[in-house]
Design a protein that fits this description.
heterodimer, A: mainly beta, B: mainly beta, six-stranded mixed sheet, five-stranded antiparallel sheet
Amino acid sequence: ETGVTQTPRHLVMGMTNKKSLKCEQHLGHNAMYWYKQSAKKPLELMFVYNFKEQTENNSVPSRFSPECPNSSHLFLHLHTLQPEDSALYLCASSQEGTGAKGNTIYFGEGSWLTVV
Amino acid sequence: GENVEQHPSTLSVQEGDSAVIKCTYSDSASNYFPWYKQELGKRPQLIIDIRSNVGEKKDQRIAVTLNKTAKHFSLHITETQPEDSAVYFCAASITGNQFYFGTGTSLTVIP
């Protein structure tokens, strides 16, 4: 069971390539996130979108470019990445506001990115 | 902003024993505290959560306690089984937005 789907699940790209990660949530949530998870490191919040508007960008390099065309879809455009960018990229969604059931954050399965 | 600290970073227990993971938070406005389990190669999944108006919540072998005064909350797993082996993350949130995660605890249950 997952209300958040990510594609592709695995991606290998060269440092000069341009690729995109896609995320779609079917939960009716109004907030979507990109997290980076590297080996032996905590979850790193990259971007937050509320109602399609970017509300947080945690000093992420410009080679990562998010796009949120609507409240159900989120993209992460990748350009001229470095090998140290290899990681698991997790998309997530939640419902902002008090009173909503749970208010928790739901993760997608993640996209394993390898930069060669 | 909020700061969530989690201890220990690794934990090994014998099968059948209990495991306890502790987290502290800094922002007294945080009112929602979920716990996630992440098995190797898989996404983090919610296992239990607690709101600030509740002191304790239990779901079978898993329980979470919250001390608002001290700003800490804990995950308790009783009668541990090998399938409990995973990385566990705590988080703190205000109104279901801006989730702040702990650094994770790698739990190993030894058969």
